[in-house]
Amino acid sequence: MNPTATTTATPGTRRHAVVDSPYGPLTLVATDGFLSGLYMTEQRHRPAEETFGDRDDPDARPFAETVRQLDAYFARDLTAFDLPLHLAGTPFQRRVWTELLRIPYGETRTYGELAELLGNRGASRAVGLANGKNPVGIVVPCHRVVGSTGSLVGYGGGLDRKQRLLAFESGHGDGDAAPEALF
Fold it and tell me: How high is the pLDDT of residue 126?
């Protein structure tokens, strides 16, 4: 089952926790008890830290389940996340993020393919912009989107991380050895 998304016009109570991962520290943000952000350090479009709310324990709800699933993902025991999400974005962004959730583990799609799935072949740039604003990286797998030639382009967490995540999921290259568990 894939994550489910809820949206609201106004942000609610926010909290955050920071956890380690094989790809560097991850900041998890919750809005009204639902995961609403997963940000890498030095990530493009990362909101200002003061918007994350009070710092909380990673064992608190909903962080504990998010950490458990991330741990299973990095141990190669989980290929699809099942977390309730609170994704704030435009209707178009949410449509793109929904399509990202449909890309199977270990596979990629091009921006153009996503645009076509959304019913607008010429919207690949808009898809790229929405992809870049994805607030819940890894869980909503924006790293699985590549350029029209299969090239690695446009990843807010950095192309090195994108390459490592794709290699990890495909079992090749840098991702061959399963990273150690988060905790």
Answer: 92
Please give the structure tokens belonging to residue 102. Answer: 């449909």
pLDDT, position 183: 27
Cα(146)–Cα(121) distance, integer angstroms: 16
Helix (H) or strand (E) holding 72: helix 63-74
> In this structure, are residues 95 and 118 in contact, taking their beta carbons and an 8 Å threshold?
yes
The whole-angstrom separation of Cα 160 and Cα 150 is 15
- Identify which of 158, 178, 160, 157 has the alpha carbon closest to the alpha carbon of residue 169: 178
Instruction: Give the pLDDT of residue 165.
Output: 86
Q: What confidence score (pLDDT) does residue 146 get?
A: 84
Class of residue 32 by CB neighbours under 10 A (exposed 0-12, middle 13-18, buried 19+): middle
Catalytic residues: 142
What are the DSSP calls for 130-157, one per residue?
A: HHHT-SBTTTS-GGGEE-TTS-----TT
* pLDDT lower than 50: segments of the chain: 1-2, 4-10, 173-183
Residue 78, by phi and psi: left (phi above 0), alpha (psi -120 to 50) or beta? beta
In terms of C-beta density within 10 A (0-12 exposed, 13-18 middle, 19 or more buried), how is residue 95 classed?
middle
The pTM of the full predicted model, rounded to 2 decimals, is 0.81
SS3 55: strand
Calpha distance 87→120 (Å, rounded): 23
Do the Cβ atoms of 87 and 97 come closer than 8 Å? yes
